[in-house]
Amino acid sequence: MFSYTFQWKQAFARLPEMLDGARVTVEIALLSMAIGIVLAVLLTGCRLSGNRVLMAVSTTWVELARNTPALFQIYMAHFGVASFGIHFSPFVSLLIGITFNNAGYLSENFRGALKAIPDTQTRSARSLGMTPIQAFGYVVMPQMLRISFLPMTNQMVWAILMTSLGVTVGMNFDLYGVTQDLNALTFRTFELFALAAVIFYVITKIIQIGARLIASRLFRY
Q1: What are the residue ranges of helices labelled H in the chain?
Q2: Coil, strand, or helix at residue 74?
Q3: InterPro entries, from UniProt (predicted)?
Q4: Tell me: the pLDDT tens digits for 156-188?
Q5: Closest of 208, 156, 192, 212 to residue 29, by C-alpha
Q6: 113 occurs within a structural domain
Q7: What is the pLDDT of residue 167?
Q8: Number of folded domains in the chain?
Q9: What CA–CA distance (Å, rounded) separates 100 from 92?
Q10: 142 domain-assigned
């Protein structure tokens, strides 16, 4: 017989601590996306470069990022490299794991976006006297980012949710880690995790709505 008594006051009393954890969660996701986008652009360039070594490195990264669990990637960033004498804090390990995952997925998004841009765009830019780098930076990249902007939003949402895996490597000051610790102190499992789920939901909805507003302003034409 279910005899659990909900005590929401205890959970709401811990809301400030959970919001502090939510701030850390958003920081990790933003950092992982910023670094991931830079790495993804490099990976895309390597994959389209025609150089076999660079193509092999990029393809291996993308295959591992897309076809292994995010939990495995975070574990390897924490426990895997530790076996070689390299030790990262839980924060750094979580950041590395999520960034690795983001870069792999975003690279494929960018590659698909590039293929959607006609080669005539680059040739036209080159005919105007632009160098290959200028043609890519001024003509191709803006179009690539426009095409892949909304898929990037999905990856940002995924990055927010992936932070909950940090608890497996000892991360205890992000939203999920704080909730886990509070649960151990108060035993208000349902209330605390329900509250954490609501906070996760609100964060991801804000990101989605914000992305749509930004897209409507930036990509009107």
Answers
A1: 8-13, 15-47, 52-67, 70-75, 81-82, 90-115, 119-127, 132-135, 141-162, 175-186, 189-218
A2: helix
A3: AA_ABC_transptr_permease_3TM, ArtM/GltK/GlnP/TcyL/YhdX-like, MetI-like, MetI-like_sf
A4: 999 999 999 999 999 989 999 999 999 999 888
A5: 156
A6: yes
A7: 92
A8: 1
A9: 12
A10: yes
Q: What pTM, to 2 d.p., does this model score?
A: 0.88
Q: Is 23 within the bounds of a domain?
A: yes
Task: Considering only CA atoms, give the Rg of the chain.
Answer: 21
Predicted confidence at residue 90, as pLDDT, reads 94
Containing structural domain, residue 190: 9-219
Longest dimension (CA), the chain: 78
**Residue written as token pair 């929401």:** 8
CA torsion sign for 17, 21, 24, 26 is: negative
- What is the C-alpha separation between 143 and 135, in angstroms, rounded? 12
In a domain, 2, yes or no: no
pLDDT score, position 144: 85
Tokens describing residue 151: 């898929």
Show the low-confidence residues of the chain (pLDDT under 50). Answer: none
User: What pLDDT does 11 receive?
Assistant: 86
141-162 vs 15-47: helix crossing angle, rounded to 10: 140
What CATH number did the domain enclosing 106 receive? 1.10.3720.10
Q: Which pLDDT belongs to residue 50?
A: 81
> How far apart are the C-alpha atoms of 117 and 8, rounded to whole Å?
53
